[in-house]
Amino acid sequence: MKPIFKSSLIKDVVISYVCMIVFPVMIILGLVFLAAGRYIYRAATESVTVTQQAVLELYREETRSSALALSRVVNMNGGTTIRDAAGHDAQKQEQALEQLDTMYQMLAAPEYKILDIHIYRRDGSAIIPKGEMRYSVDELRQKEWYQAAVSNPGLVHTALVDEDYFYRIRSAREILEISAYAPGEDTQAECIVLYRISKIPDSIKNYNKNGKLGTICLINSQGNIVAAPGQKNRIPSAVMEKIRQNAADPAGSARPAASSHPAKNNHVSDGGRQQISYRGIRYMILPMPEPGYYLVSAVNETSLFGQFTLFSLISMAVILCVVLMFIFYFKWYMNRLLIPLGHLTEGMREVEHRNLDTQVEMCRQQDIARMIATFNNMVEQIKKLIHDKEQIEKEKYQEELHTLQSQMNPHFLMNTLNTLKFMAISAHYTGMQDMVVALENILAAVLNRDGGFYRVRDEQSVLESYIYIMQFRYMDSFEVDMDLNPAVLDCKVPKLILQPIVENCITHGFDNLGDRLGRITVAGTIREGNLIFEITDNGKGMDQDTIRQILGDTESQEPSGSPESPGRPEHPRRRTIGVSNTDRRLKLNFGPRYGVSIQSEPGAYTRVTLTLPVITNTTEDEDHVHSTDS
Questions:
Q1: What is the per-residue pLDDT across 228-277, written as a single tens digit (0 to 9) for each?
Q2: For the chain, does the N or the C end have fewer beta carbons within 10 angstroms?
Q3: Domains of the chain with bracketed CATH
């Protein structure tokens, strides 16, 4: 359809409608649609973000309170209670443990979330006042949170742990908030640890009961849900892999480092947020300050844009109506203007590809109808002019061809008649009848004007008659071998196409041959889709300059109108007539790719090759004759 819009009229109509109606409506609706979508999406995501922020604040509060509680334990009685409890004086240890128990009751009473306070000695033993541990002290020493606390003495290190260190029955999946402290002064205690059950699972459970905007959970680095009671599914591996990639990318959302808190100053930094869409679910990820933990909100994108659906449908309906109006308008104009113009353009393209039989159908629009009528008349005039030119060229070609065909050596007929006259006077020669028959055969081919082509077998008959006569003239001083493939005998060739070449072999090739017997070989075959004739003689040959003169000198030729007798000096230009005329006849009939080529070696041989198309019937004959290349 692109060429249609080259018309200024059609272009103005379409552009004015699109620019003044379609584009303004589409732009306004698009802006409203975009603004409403951004507002609704922002409101929904902010709701999820507020929930995540509440869980994060709860984690911060727990971290601060746990660190503060452990600081109170460590600094109780100026630090002597921990020193005595970790020491080996039984009396002081008993008093210190009583004080620790009192402190534990005070700390655990409001919430009953603190599980125990443990003291781990440097000698590998541990003081465990309450529950029994599942792990040995050596196993606990290998934990990251333990090593982090020992490597930073004087600071409280907090960590989230989804392991159960105690022998007890858990009512739901829980997560521990661990506060660890390594004393800097010289004491038997290597690390003091306060174990506390986090409130994060309960907070997440209360949020998930509503479920209006998806669910929220806490996952570890393996993608397991560690703090979402009732949820046992893993985060999809593709989503988890994306989370890890973003966490490892320095330019992306950097994950905050582990939090270390002074014994009296608790602080946690936020990390960058991520959003990942996977199979219709929008995952909003908030890295926790604890390394390897992520707070994930999974929201169905349909529900995320639930309030946006009705507005979207209305907007799409309005846009669809505008598009339909444009389609109906454009279709009406297409039937009246664009289609006729398209037909006219297609007709021009056909004329460009030389198809002059093209006629464009008329239409009802007056301006375009006049254009189509003018185009149709123009095509007819061009067609008539080309036909007239072809007729003139054809007549010119036929006249030139007849002129070339009439340039047969007339002296050949004179010499033959002189020979017959001499034979008739001398005696009753028994070969006289054969000579006359041969001459009649040749004259019939020369004088017959009914078309310029006949079969190869007819050319062979004429050539054999000519050779019979010439062998009488030259006293059997040469021999001719015919080697024509049977497949070529029914092919069509121009009349007397081989005779001039054989004549040149006899009259010029065997000049000054001496006592040697002249030999001519006439071979014909079909090779690579072409009809090939090769005429080879063992005469005196010629050099390359002579070959170029024969094939290139077409303007300085002289007709041989005088009889030629054996031994008469040859004219320097006469020997070019037979070969060059044959070459011109082939090119005029079939085009420049066909013609004559010569190979020769002075004193050895000459081979003349004729290349013609393979023609086997009258129709192909006419096609080849009139389709010469320009």
A1: 555 555 678 788 888 777 766 645 444 443 444 444 333 333 346 788 88
A2: C
A3: 1-304 (no CATH), 307-396 (no CATH), 429-625 (3.30.565.10)
Per-position b or e across 94-116, b if 16+ CB within 10 A of its CB: eebbebbeebbeebbeeeebbbb
483 and 521 Cβ atoms separated by less than 8 Å: yes
CA 178 – CA 535 distance, rounded (Å): 111
Task: Tell me what pLDDT residue 532 has.
Answer: 96
SS (H, E, C) 272-305: CCEEEEECCEEEEEEECCCCCCEEEEEEEHHHHC
Scan for tokens 């279709």, then name that residue: 331
The overall pTM is greater than 0.70? no
Reduce the DSSP state of residue 15 to 3 states and report it.
helix
Under a CB-based contact definition with an 8 Å cutoff, are residues 553 and 576 in contact? Answer: yes
Cα 492 to Cα 455: distance, rounded to the nearest angstrom:
4
Contact 192, 180 (CB under 8 A): yes
Structure tokens at 458: 């007819």
| Distance (Å) of CA 20 to CA 23, 169, 328, 457 | 7, 74, 17, 81
Euclidean distance between CA atoms 545 and 452, whole angstroms: 32
CB atoms < 10 A from the CB of 433, how many? 9
Give which of 600, 597, 571, 570 is closest to 582, Cα–Cα. Answer: 597
The predicted-structure confidence for 601-611, as pLDDT tens digits, reads as follows 998 999 999 99
- What are residue 267's phi and psi, to 5 degrees? -150, 135
Structure tokens of 274? 């991520």
| Residue found by looking up tokens 């109006």 in the block | 325
CA torsion through residues 492, 495, 497, 501, sign: positive
Backbone phi, then psi, for 98, in 5-degree steps? Answer: -65, -40
Which amino acid, 619?
A: T
| Residue 556's pLDDT band (cuts 50, 70, 90) | very low
Range with lowest mean pLDDT among 67-71, 179-183, 417-421, 576-580: 417-421
Decide if pLDDT at 151 tops 70.
yes
Give me the amino acid identity at 583.
D
Do 286 and 256 contact (CB within 8 A), yes or no? no
Tokens 């946006």 correspond to what residue?
Answer: 308
Token pair 């059950």 in the structure block, residue: 197
Q: Look at residues 446, 498, 439 and name the one whose alpha carbon lies nearest to residue 473.
A: 439
Q: How far, in Å, CA of 100 to CA of 114, rounded?
A: 13
Q: What are phi and psi of 410, to 5 degrees?
A: -70, -25
Contact 116, 130 (CB under 8 A): yes
Instruction: In whole angstroms, give the CA distance from residue 580 to residue 582.
Output: 5
Taking every pair of C-alpha atoms in the chain, what is the biggest distance, in angstroms? 173
Q: Which two tokens stand for residue 8?
A: 């200024």
The helix (run of H) or strand (run of E) holding residue 207 is helix 200-210
DSSP 389: H
Return the pLDDT at 367.
78
Nearest to 226 by CA among 269, 272, 189, 173: 173
Measuring CA to CA, how many Å separate 421 from each of 248, 427, 441?
117, 10, 19
Question: In the block, which residue shows the tokens 């600081």?
Answer: 71
DSSP-assigned letter for residue 166: B
How far is residue 492's CA from residue 526's CA, in Å, rounded to a whole number?
Answer: 13
How large a percentage of the chain has pLDDT more than 90? Answer: 17
- For residue 45, give the nearest of 290, 205, 313, 274 by alpha carbon: 274
Structural tokens at position 404? 């070339």
Which helix (H) or strand (E) segment is 43 a member of? helix 23-74
Q: What pLDDT, on the 0 to 100 scale, is given for residue 230?
A: 55
